[in-house]
Amino acid sequence: MNRRQFLRLSGLTPALLMLQQIPFAAAASPGSLQSVRLAPDDARVLMAVVERMTETGTSGAPAPNALGTLSTIEAILSRLDAELVSALRIALRVVEWWPAVLEGKFQRFSKLAPDAQTRSLEGWRSSGIEARRAVFAALRNLALLAYWSRPETWPLIGYGGPWVGRRP
């Protein structure tokens, strides 16, 4: 393991520690779009982003809504500072209105076709504006953490689940 790999691995530690504390059993039922910390419009935009960022291209892959991904995100947000949640709300509103105002799409992000949503997010990922890239990275990390932490997604990546506590 070289220094770069070690630093990448150590950068995952806070996310893994947070994941360990997420109360999955207490999460709302799958398919629920009710959000405690986000307004309904913000939750809708966030789930549109999550759907694009977690698209696996694999038939039979569970949809984020079917897994209760929003509930998992809520559990993550419940552990964050209110200022960070406010920043997320603002970022979601900017992502929602960016295509209508600055891309000439005349539609908000959540109303775009899936391919257009993917292209819009690609614009965020590859933007020359550092703040846009940071918003993309934050949304991507949140989406991937919430989606791939669900046991229903583990077979897609060949993960059999944790070994600790497993009976022989």
Structure overview:
With 168 residues, this protein is an all-alpha fold. The protein has one domain (13-22, 37-156). The chain is built from eight helices and no strands. The longest helix is centred in the middle third of the chain and has 21 residues, at 82-102. The protein starts with a helix and ends in a 20-residue tail after the last helix.
How is the secondary structure organized here?
Blueprint lengths: L2 H9 L1 H8 L19 H14 L10 H4 L1 H10 L3 H21 L11 H12 L4 H19 L20
**General form:** globular
Strand tally: 0
Name the poorly predicted regions: 15-35
What is the rounded Rg? 17 Å
Task: Work out the helix count.
Answer: 8
Q: Encode the helix/strand succession as letters.
A: HHHHHHHH
Structural class: mainly alpha
How much β-strand is present in the residues? under 5%
Average pLDDT confidence is: 79
Distance from N terminus to C terminus (CA atoms, Å) equals 31 Å
> How helical, in percent, are the residues?
55-70%
Largest sheet: none
Give the total of domains. 1
